[in-house]
Every structure is written in C-alpha cells, then in structure tokens.
Amino acid sequence: MVSSIGTGVPKAIGILAGALITHEAFKAGTKLGYGDTDVQTADEICDVFIKHQSSSINSEALESLKSSRRVQLLDDRLVEHFRRIKNVATSITSQMVGYSLPLGLCVGAVALPGVFGGLCAAGLILGGAKILLTDVVGIGKK
C-alpha cells in the first residue's frame, strides 16, 4: 500500500506540473504570436503606403491602378492568417523550448520508477518553490 502511494505521488506531481507548464507555454506563446503578427501587419501597412504614394510618372491611369492594388494589398486577410498561424506556432515552440528542463523533470517523474521518479518530482517542487519565492514573494529578487 505504501509502495503504491510512494510511486503515485511523483507521477501525480509530474502530470500536474506538465499540464501547468504546457498550458502556460500555449497561453504565453499565443499571446506573443498575436503581438508579433500585429507588429508585422502594421509594418506591412506602412510599407504599402510608402511604396504606393509616389511614382515617377504623373498619370491618372497609373494612380487608378496603384489605388486598386493598394486596396487589394490592405484588404487581403489570407496572408495575415497564415502569418498569424506561423507566429503562434513559432512562439509556442519557443516557449516549450524554454520550459525544456521542467518538462524533462515531468517526464522523469511520470516515467521513471521509484527513487528516480521521486527525485524528478522533488526537482519540480524545488523549482516551483524557487519561482514562487522569487517572483511572487520577492525574496532574492534584485
């Protein structure tokens, strides 16, 4: 009975920590990806107006063509959606790479038997306690 509780606790800690870390990476990565997309879209809008404001030839037909091209470039949302998907995927991946050590400890707590799983769970608890004490309480923060 004690043996099953002793192996179940590290696994539960690993599963809970893994879920929390993955959730945090997805939320932060999505937020960063959307922000990057907004910045890139704003840069593209500026480029469209700068490139299409002047020409070497003064012509009504050319201005009409430029105006329709400008409207097409500014109203095209397909490129923005693909850019958003790329930026969100890149940001989530970046966040997951940043959490690689805690995720490795989560896998170790769930997959490794006995003492090794317990050591991984202890590493997760110590890491979480350090983050709480540093970032929430402010102990040791410079």
Sequence-ordered SSE layout with sheet pairings:
Blueprint: H1 2-53, H2 60-75, H3 78-98, H4 100-111, H5 114-137
Helix pairs in contact: 1-2, 1-3, 1-4, 1-5, 4-5
Question: Can you describe what's shown?
Answer:
By secondary structure, the protein is mainly α. Helices cover 88% and strands 0% of the residues.
Mean pLDDT: 85
User: How big is the Rg?
Assistant: 25 Å
Q: Note the overall shape.
A: elongated
Residue stretches low in confidence (pLDDT < 50, at least 5 long) are none
Question: How many angstroms separate the termini?
Answer: 46 Å
The total count of helices amounts to 5
Number of strands: 0
Q: Roughly what percent helix?
A: over 70%
Series of secondary-structure elements, N-terminal to C-terminal: HHHHH
Strand content: under 5%
Q: Report the major sheet.
A: none
- Name the structural class: mainly alpha
Oligomer class: single chain
From the structure above, extract its key features:
142 residues, mainly alpha, 88% helix, 0% strand, elongated
Summarize the entry for a quick read.
The chain is an all-alpha fold and 142 residues long.
